Amino acid sequence: MDIRIQKSKLHNHQKIQITGSKSESNRLLLLQALYPQISINNVSNSDDSVLMQNALVSEDELIDIHHAGTAMRFLTAYFAIQKGRETILTGSPRMKERPIKILVDALKMLGADITYLENDGFPPIKIVGSELTKHKVTLQANVSSQYISALLLIASKLENGLELTLKGKITSVPYINMTLSLLQSIGVETSFIENTITVKPQTTNLKPQTLTVESDWSSASYFYSLIALSPVGTEITIAAYKDKSLQGDSVLATIYKEFGITTTFKDESIRLQKISNPDKKLKVELDLKNAPDIAQTIAVTAFGLGLECYMIGLHTLKIKETDRLVALKTELEKLGAQVEITDLSLHLQPSENRNSNIKIATYNDHRMAMAFAPLGLKVPIDIENADVVSKSYPQFWEDFKSIGFNLK
Ligand SMILES: O=C(O)C1=C[C@@H](OP(=O)(O)O)[C@@H](O)[C@H](O)C1
Ligand SMILES: C=C(OP(=O)(O)O)C(=O)O
After folding, report:
1. Which residues does the record give as phosphoenolpyruvate binding sites (predicted)?
2. What is the mean pLDDT of residues 264-289?
């Protein structure tokens, strides 16, 4: 399904409810499978969380996780400790290009039995569940934090817990801290000192408890972009958010101040208001190693405002749903932008040039579709395979329509 966004204007003062964080949900679903005393409120209705949920209750040998990277990594660790069970974990063609060797090597060092079924270092993999008897492992931390979170999530079920030593510059740190915070909130003891993370084994039963997932901050980014591209005075309220978030993408509130947006927390909601237009000479400079999922949104906001934007810390973007650096450059250039990329950075030149009626390719990447949609406030635009949004935000187009977007 392609979507055409005609030139649109937002209804002011709207309120939108956003589904639970995909990252928090996928962690808590796995923890709930290990500790059934846990109940979860506001679980994400994203495809990736539904796939995670189904995989955890499935009794099939073959589990296909489609495009869900977090689920792929977390389930690799989960099935490695399901004693006596054989599981084949596979995914979409792109998933078979997303590396998993660092995690598989670490699990094997702890005693796991995992083999590659096609290409070394990549899914599909065959896992024979066993008791992992070792408890110390060192792994490279600069490729994806998901490998680290996967190990931490199963750690309290290992006989002696886990002592993880991280090598190299640690990437996407807030996601590691989110995992540790959720473990602590259910009662598991953890510590993170310098480059060593320790998780104690959980020997007693956890008490029954209900945890509430905060709404997804990466999804909130598209509303920040919308408000940034709207006239001064426009505002929107989105729910349900907390002042103290576990999600690193909550840094949006700080980043979008530069684009003239204020964020006010009230009654578990945030109100985004456009209070000024940024100076045309503004150069947006950011290191996004802690918040890689909002890079596409920010690049498109800067383009829509005609601003120069230089972002570093983007080394993980090449191994996500698509090579997001190449995808951003290709699609922004179709619209008239000038973009240079390296393996870890993107530089967008300032320009008022904006071609209209361009068809944006989405490369099976939900964030390509959602990041480019707000440009519909400036020029008519087509989004190819617009249903990719369901990977993290199935109601995305309904919500955009309800606040004034003219979609065909
Ligand atoms: O742990 C998580 O929930 C995630 C970690 C990040 O991945 P990397 O650590 O690979 O950057 C992020 O991009 C992804 O969308 C979700
Ligand atoms: C990178 C993402 O997800 P995953 O790695 O879980 O596929 C994302 O949602 O932007």
Report:
1. 22, 69, 98, 146, 324, 367, 391
2. 97
pLDDT at 394 over 90: yes
Residue identifier of the C-alpha nearest atom 10 of ligand 2: 293
- The per-residue pLDDT for 76 is 98
Q: How far is the CA of 172 from the centre of ligand 1 (A)?
A: 7
* Residue found under tokens 């590659």: 116
Cis peptide before 93 (omega within 30 of 0): no
Query: What CATH number is given for 3-19+214-402 in this structure?
Result: 3.65.10.10
Q: Are 80 and 132 in contact (CB under 8 A)?
A: yes
User: According to the annotation, is 233 in a ligand binding site?
Assistant: no
Check pocket membership of 145 for ligand 1, CB cut-off 6 A: yes
Residues 98 and 72 sit within 8 Å (Cβ to Cβ)? yes
Q: Is 367 in the pocket of ligand 2 (CB under 6 A)?
A: yes
Measured distance CA(189)–CA(198) in Å, rounded: 8
Give the pLDDT confidence score for residue 8 in this predicted structure. Answer: 81
Q: Which of 72, 73, 170, 175 to mutate to test the pocket of ligand 1 (most atoms within 8 A of CB)?
A: 175
Q: What pairs with residue 309 in β-bridges?
A: 284, 348
pTM: 0.98
User: Which residue, among 214, 210, 213, 212, has the nearest Cα to 37 in the 3D structure?
Assistant: 210
34-72 in b/e form (b: 16+ CB < 10 A) is: bbeebebebbbbbbbbbbbbebbeeeeeebbbbbbbbbb
Backbone angles phi, psi at 152, to 5 degrees: -65, -35
Q: For residue 26, which of 42, 48, 55 has the smallest C-alpha distance? A: 48
The answer to whether domain 3-19+214-402 and domain 22-212 are alike in fold is yes
Are the C-beta atoms of residues 300 and 225 closer than 8 Å to each other? Answer: yes
Catalytic residue among 47, 216, 293, 365: 293
User: Rounded to the nearest whole angstrom, what is the distance from the C-alpha of residue 119 to the centroid of ligand 2?
Assistant: 21
> Under CATH, which architecture does the 22-212 domain have?
Alpha-beta prism (3.65)
What mean pLDDT is reported for the chain? 97
Domain-by-domain residue ranges, the chain?
A: 3-19+214-402, 22-212
293 in active site: yes
Which atom of ligand 2 is nearest the CA belonging to 391?
9
CA 356–ligand 1 middle distance (angstroms): 33
